[in-house]
Amino acid sequence: MTHLLTPQPTGVNTAHYWQGQLPVAFVFSVPGSHEKSASYPVAGATGENLSFALEHLHSELPAVFSSTDRYAYRITNAYSKPIAKSLGDASSQASNSQVQASENIARVLRDLDGCNLVILCGIKAQLLAESIRHPRRTVVYSWHISNQALSNKFNSPDVCKLPDPSARRQLRAKLWAYELLNSLL
Fold it and tell me: Structure pTM?
């Protein structure tokens, strides 16, 4: 299965937002240079890792994760403006105050309309937790699924002994998926 997908546009999609058709949302930190140039979210390695993880999520909990296609899900970011050092920014993250600004929270709430499960991926996304809680919405926390975050979190001897970097990356995405499943059960 290929993970270098080019999504087919539906509705209004941008570098920070993908509408999807399922009531499950993944909220990441901020779009970066890959997303800016592609004009859709999770366009680089983070998106590929999400695709790897969705294979496992779908096989273990298909009633919730009914597709292995990451663009079947709602995808948004804690902050909408692309930020990356390669774009000339001093940092690759929005500030806490940018994420928690009232107009940004209002945007995120619009982005999540109709979603009954929201997965906050990373520390910046988790800053939104209290603002997006809703009686008919489950909000769960997860590690970010970037290569750097996965390498930092899942660096056990079992992972490191794999000689192939691609196999290590796929195993880390699988371990991320299992942690997410444990938080849902």
Answer: 0.91
DSSP bridge pairs for 27? 76, 120
Structural domain that includes position 105 = 24-184
Rounded to whole angstroms, the Cα distance separating 176 from 147 reads 11
Q: Give the number of other CB atoms < 10 A from CB of residue 35.
A: 24
Residues β-bridged to residue 146: none
Query: Tokens standing for 134?
Result: 């809703």
Residue 71 lies in a domain: yes
Rg, C-alpha atoms of the chain: 16
Q: In what order do the strands lie in the sheet with 24-28?
A: 74-77, 24-28, 117-121, 138-142
> Taking every pair of C-alpha atoms in the chain, what is the biggest distance, in angstroms?
47
Question: Total domain count for the chain?
Answer: 1
Q: Taking the CB of residue 49, how many other CB atoms lie within 10 A of it?
A: 25
Q: Mind listing the pLDDT tens digit for each residue in 125-177? A: 999 999 999 999 999 999 999 999 999 999 999 899 999 999 999 999 999 99
- CATH code (residue 125): 3.40.470.10
3-state DSSP: the chain helix, strand, coil percent, rounded to 5?
A: 45, 10, 45
